[in-house]
Amino acid sequence: MSDAAVSPLAPKSFPELPPVAGVQLSTLAAGLRYQGRDDLFLAFVPEGSTVAGTFTTSRCPSAPVDWCKKLIDSGAGRALVVNSGNANAFTGAAGDAAALATAEAAAKALGVQSSDIYLSSTGVIGEVLSASAMAEALPALAQGLADSVPDKWRASADAIRTTDTFAKGASAAIGDTDCSIVGIAKGSGMIAPDMATMLAYVFTDATIAANDFQRLLREGVESSFNRITVDSDTSTSDTVLGFATGAGSYQYSDSTEATFYNALEAVLLDLAHQIVRDGEGASKFIRVQVDGAETDHAAQRIARSIADSPLVKTALAAEDANWGRIVMAVGKSGEAADRDALTIQIGPELVARDGVVYEGYSEERATEHLRGQNVDLFVDVGVGRGSSSVWTCDLTHGYIDINAGYRS
Amino acid sequence: MSDAAVSPLAPKSFPELPPVAGVQLSTLAAGLRYQGRDDLFLAFVPEGSTVAGTFTTSRCPSAPVDWCKKLIDSGAGRALVVNSGNANAFTGAAGDAAALATAEAAAKALGVQSSDIYLSSTGVIGEVLSASAMAEALPALAQGLADSVPDKWRASADAIRTTDTFAKGASAAIGDTDCSIVGIAKGSGMIAPDMATMLAYVFTDATIAANDFQRLLREGVESSFNRITVDSDTSTSDTVLGFATGAGSYQYSDSTEATFYNALEAVLLDLAHQIVRDGEGASKFIRVQVDGAETDHAAQRIARSIADSPLVKTALAAEDANWGRIVMAVGKSGEAADRDALTIQIGPELVARDGVVYEGYSEERATEHLRGQNVDLFVDVGVGRGSSSVWTCDLTHGYIDINAGYRS
């Protein structure tokens, strides 16, 4: 938790997250790095629960990511242990040993196998997580397990924060069943495409086979976390894990797939948007929609090129309708675009059509849109039918303040 | 020219550039956008001069870039007209017409063909360059032509500035002949790989065939302008042009290629470094050297990933030896790296070896290096023999100040 004020884009309050049958939660202040706050989070699920997960594409992943990747193919698991303050990344063999020791201590405290324990660590890179501190804390952490009532969700979301200025949670009912999906997440910097830099955990009391859960989680991550960017930086620790306890009445079937997927995607997208809304220094929540590209993938690349451009982001921070920088970002994406068929729109205001400024364009009206907290940019590159969108935030002095002082 | 103070990384003074036989220069205040300063630059070279050029990879290039690309295959030309304040980019057919009108006006004033006239425009995107203002100014601009004495070089380097805080020039003798290569450049933002966002012009009194000149210019740009980055943004207008008058004694031959190339590369590299030193808001001049990659290309991609990372750049601005962010940037590059064989060095200080912190590492000594204006980062990713380097600058509040207010 940084000293920075709560993001101006934060939701008004933490949502009232419903209990998920079968899920038990616990948090603890172990003083690993932060003082006076919880820095450990434990979730425990019943035997027979299924687990799905997706992880960072970084070529230098953290020890806990390596650990989880080895387990995830089983599709099974009983618990999740997360610590904040230390990423246990770039810590070599000692980091792997700390991850193993943590899993073993958790397994012992919970009476399960170490291969049942998923791990995440978030915080500073390059310092080995203290295996003894983790081992020491785990019995008390396990002792604190209790049903996943709203206060417990809130405490869990708080325990995994690092530079986050607000706790992040979301939930959705699975159709009109009594089952739901609840998620918590952390992340505000080192956020970029391909999983962004974040941790997110979703829990459901639905019954769903591991392979179906994995497939739908991957699809949901693709259209949520993989379409946000704060600063184009990708973490060594990105992790999304899903746990399905099967303790509720909804049973997954092909015919009701949409019911389950819609709830899952809603939760993932809500959490992803909250991460952007907590983007370091963010003062605007920005959607970049690109149409008319050769393919959806090309549209995504163009949208990211716009969303990652420091020049576009600083112009938006200044509420400056400097759309020339959007043209620049389209051009540098490397994807096909017809300069003379390009259309650009800022909010409701048509700025350029067929590669030139639209005759009725009013910079005043475009600026009016940019003065709001929610900014929409639309670009049609005029060469095909590919379409995609990206969510991002602006680049302000606050980003530099936060990142020039994170460790001190 | 912005109101910003001169970059702290600027050279102490503009160099004394020697006259280049055959080259005539002129500048003029046409009031296209800026007031009280020259905004037009004209260079005129003798019949028989050879011309080489490389241009932006942007898919949305400016009208003058399109114009130059059509001419450059001829390898010939007589003049260069550059205006600052307006990029004549994303201006559709009207922009092309303005470019043509400018070339025609210049040709008439100089008594040559419009296909002899190379053009560049730099400044705000999306506004059509005034063809009538250009046509009106060109006779007086041509009238002002005079030998390329030092003061004329200085005036020319000043006339092409936009947000530059200092004028950029460099020269080198061609071996021990009486011939030389002189270059001027502009650029400080929208600087990125693949030509960076800049204009650079080199002039020599050597005699060199167009195809040799083109080949060597391309090679020189590859190892200079294509290895700098300020903000990862790529301009619509990047242009490097070379003019060889043949008015001096040096005649290019295969056996003396190195003599010519060394002088050319020295001038291009000097100009490229000056652009980084004028990086918007820059307070540090940073070299990122990557070794041990699969290929030189992979090393270049990893070096760029580090050099473009906002988290690395803000840490360096804060003189914070937060090397975990370097690991992050290596990981996100997508290139092969052996996490457990990674070596990182900050200046003379070995930080990490074999994937863990080096036992003798002193953060104090690393910080001491970061307190200087010149920062060297070395990374060995431990998988092969590929090697490359990139020059960049840090990311400071100054960058945001400049870019949030460029148009106003």
Whole-angstrom Rg of chain A:
22 Å
Instruction: Give the low-confidence spans of chain A.
Output: 191-196
Q: Number of DSSP helices of chain A?
A: 11
Strand line-up across the major sheet of chain A: 10-17-12-16-13-14-15
* CATH class bucket of the largest domain in chain A: Alpha Beta
Number of domains of chain A: 2
Into which percentage range does the β-strand content of chain A fall? 15-25%
User: How would you name the oligomeric state of the polypeptide chains in this document?
Assistant: homodimer
Largest sheet of chain A: 7 strands, mixed
The 3D shape of chain A can be described as globular
CATH superfamily of the largest domain in chain A: L-amino peptidase D-ALA esterase/amidase
First and last CA, distance of chain A: 13 Å
Using a beta-carbon cutoff below 8 angstroms, give the protein chain pair with the largest interface and the number of residues from each chain.
A-B, 69 and 69 residues
The run of helices and strands of chain A is EEEHEHEHEHEEEHEEHEHHHEEEHEEH
Helix content of chain A: 25-40%
